[in-house]
Amino acid sequence: MGRLSKSSDAESKISKCRDSGGTSLDLESLGLQSVPEEVRQLRNLKRLDLSNNRIEDLPRWIGELANLDALYLHGNPLRTIPASIQQLSALRILIIARAHASAASESIGNLLGLRELALADLGLRTVPEWVRRLRNIETLYLFGNGLASVPKWLSELSTLTQLSLENNQLRSLPASLKELGSLRFLSLEGNPLLSLPAEIARAGDARKILRYYFRMANGGAAQPLNEFKLILVGRGGVGKTSLVHRLVNDRYKEFRRTPGIKITKWPMRLGRDDVLAHVWDFGGQEIMHGTHRFFMTERALYLVLISGREGTEDYDADYWLSLVRSFAGADVPIIVLHHKTSDWSFELNRELLRKKYGRTLSFLETDSETAVGISELRERIGRLARSLPGLKSSWPMAWRRVKEQLPRKRKSWLTFDGFRTFCTQQNVTERKEQDDLAESLHDLGLMLSYRKDEGLREFGVLNPQWVTNGIYRILNSEKLRKAGGKFTVKAFGGILLK
Questions:
Q1: Among 478, 474, 476, 475, which Cα is nearest to 493's?
Q2: Across all residues in the chain, what is the average pLDDT?
């Protein structure tokens, strides 16, 4: 009954299109095993969507639809494309996906007016040579095949603006790709042998990807970074600094409240790898919370500490999770800690929090003094850190030299021109590459450089500890508090230089 209904739907749509002189026909997902003969009469047709049916062979008469501008065939088990398709001189868009490799017919190479072509999920091992003839192509989808290489001649397609190569088996990229001056979008995710950092590949920025890839290929001895940023947030007095001390030194120690942000290096062992965590311990005083947005980044792992001491655990959990999601994004991994569990017993509505802030939220009970849950926390941090974008990024040696030598300058602030000069001295000479490196160092928490913020981008390169100490000194100033928050530039300078 369902099949008859779908067949009737197809007949109805074709009749309606014929009677109205329509130029677009949608026969998607109707269970069709062949293209209905009645479509042959629709000579005004410009757009034909046959996607997600059961069509194995395209009829020879398809070439008679001379006005056809767009043909969608994805999701059909296509085996043959007739030679008559080359008669469709007006065709600009042809989408073939999830079909047999034989559907990549050489006749398509004669459609010289094509602007957009998909040959995706066909099991191709090489890019068909006939693609070389498509000199007007702008968008080319080749994802989901078994491609081991990209042909050098692809650079001859000078009008190409988008190239999709994700989920193949690419081992390398030809230097000729750099000649594609119009290329703006390049997708390479799912090609592990290229050793591209996930955040670089995911960005889709063709210039950025190619700069990084060829810098790495030509820089020699590129190695995984094996560093990540771990951020702790929570109400003041919840025990963040004691927890960091327990994690790093495996000992308990009480601390006074953190007056700002304390950054600690934590060497870890993850499997066979030595990994360095840059641990950011945020001061929890309420007046400081508005500054958190300047230091929270997407490429980080977050610990949200909740204590039942004030009886505000539900509010606190909602508040801090909202803060992290707002400033760091919807995808960053978060572990919610019921901390000081031996002192304060309470229950959080975990299901509600997961529904509101993501199913990947992780919960754990911990206590720095008694070491309850600490071993499990270390294991969970390690497991989540492995999935962080950037952890296994292969950094060229020149980039590593900048990262290692920059702190040795012992300067709290550099203009961005000064940073560029320093990069050039370390053989990172291209301006765009210097921008990329600054962004990566910022995300890692090794320096602050707000290149994406028009209001802050000219502030240069900043030492995070210097910045945070200055901000918190101002916010906690007794002089400003007595003045009701009003200050002159002179007073401002006096506080910082005190």
A1: 474
A2: 86
